[in-house]
Amino acid sequence: MRISIVVPALDEAREIVAALTPLQPLRAAGHEVIVVDGGSADATLALAAPLADRAFVAAKGRAPQMNAGAAAATNDVLLFLHADSRLPAAGVAALLRELPRSGRRWGRFDVAIAGRPAILALVAAMMNARSRLTGIATGDQGLFVERALFAAVGGYPEQPLMEDIELSRRLKQAAGRPLCLRERVVTSGRRWERRGPWRTIVAMWRWRLAYWRGADPGRLAAEYDAALRPAPVVLQIFAKNPMPGHVKTRLANAIGTKEAAALYTRFVEMTLATAVAARAAGIVDHVELWCAPDIDAPAFAAWSERFGVALKAQSGKDLGARMRSALGTVIDRGSRAILIGTDCPALDVQYLAQAVAALDAHDAVFGPVEDGGYVLVGLARRVEVFSGIPWSTPDTMAATRAQLISQGSTWQELPLLWDVDEPTDLLRWEALADRAPCVPASSPATAA
Length: 448
Hints:
By secondary structure, the chain is an alpha/beta fold. It has two domains: 3-196, Spore Coat Polysaccharide Biosynthesis Protein SpsA, Chain A (Alpha-Beta Complex), CATH 3.90.550; 233-447, Spore Coat Polysaccharide Biosynthesis Protein SpsA, Chain A. It is built from 18 helices and 15 strands. It has helices at 16-20, 24-28, 44-48, 62-72, 91-102, 119-134, 147-152, 163-175, 190-195, 197-212, 217-227, 249-255, 257-280, 298-307, 319-332, 349-359, 396-406, 423-430, and strands at residues 3-9, 32-37, 54-57, 77-80, 85-86, 106-114, 144-146, 179-188, 233-240, 286-292, 310-313, 336-340, 364-368, 374-379, 411-413. Strands 3-2-1-4-7-6-8-5 form an eight-stranded mixed sheet. It has a seven-stranded mixed sheet with strand order 11-10-9-12-14-13-15, sandwiched between helices. Helix 12 (249-255) packs across helix 13 (257-280). The longest helix has 24 residues, at 257-280. The protein is elongated and about 75 Å long. The termini are far apart.
């Protein structure tokens, strides 16, 4: 028995690679992964294609997308997996073992909700208990069904909300109660985090009650989308005026001040190219270049025009104060903030996508580097972690962790990277086999 995993997606460039990567061993074992995009405005489809057996666009809407995926499937059992959910490691093995043994023809997994509030564990437990009691499954639980039975009940009803509830009712009527597996699909708690868990619980029950009383699913879907729309993400880049003798001073001792300034210029432009690529892919919403020591340098104006980014002035007497000020400015206007430097050539679009995804479930995210600091910090809310930190030392990240722990904040650390500060780092960068310049080496900024 083989399984076709159908993943509906819409504007999921921030999540799709993380969702599909764990499924690759299943593909190698003969199972099938089908991604159905609903016409994303970002790079979801391009990112998904190398990680799926089929990836294509269908009419927008979770129900029509899943129906299109089912129509394209070739295996006997369909498993519908949301793009922000992760299958348990033993999930498919349990499905293959228990479905024929149970005599059931459809079912679902238990669910766990990833996120900071402790109440989410209770929410998941209540969802699982309710499902066992009623025989109704939700899409977050990873619904699976024999392909022939799915076709016999007409597939998902093409309604914009509660399509999983309606399909469960049809399957229960046609084939009896579902197989309920204890293995847990882990789904993102981002919708619970955005509005607060209690407000979301109340809203979900209100929408569900309204649906059972016959409310128009289209109206409910519009309310749902408006209520759970994510906060925008602003990518902030800290940069200095690339004047010889003022940037890359440790490297300048080995290669000269002019060469160090030209190298710094190139790193800034590579970082800006990565940032605008992330913006074009829909991973971040806005890009800002935060300038020091002043905003009026010709280099900054040239970069702003060339890359289409807003200029902002750094303020504060030390690095911590400048970071706090910049990040707080974005948080206070209702957005999420990610702040990066310009010294890390390994920081790419996918790394930024991982950072944004981490902010769906955590207060903060960090991109640690080998020298003990970090090249990326992101905040979903105000978190005080910038006071009393020994900057530019091997203890920077460790001291930051201690601050986070002391105030009960949650955070995620991304894979360890390295930045270019010493001559040995420069050799390491030059040795990267796949390194290719994002922009020409010369630029108007080098004249600053």
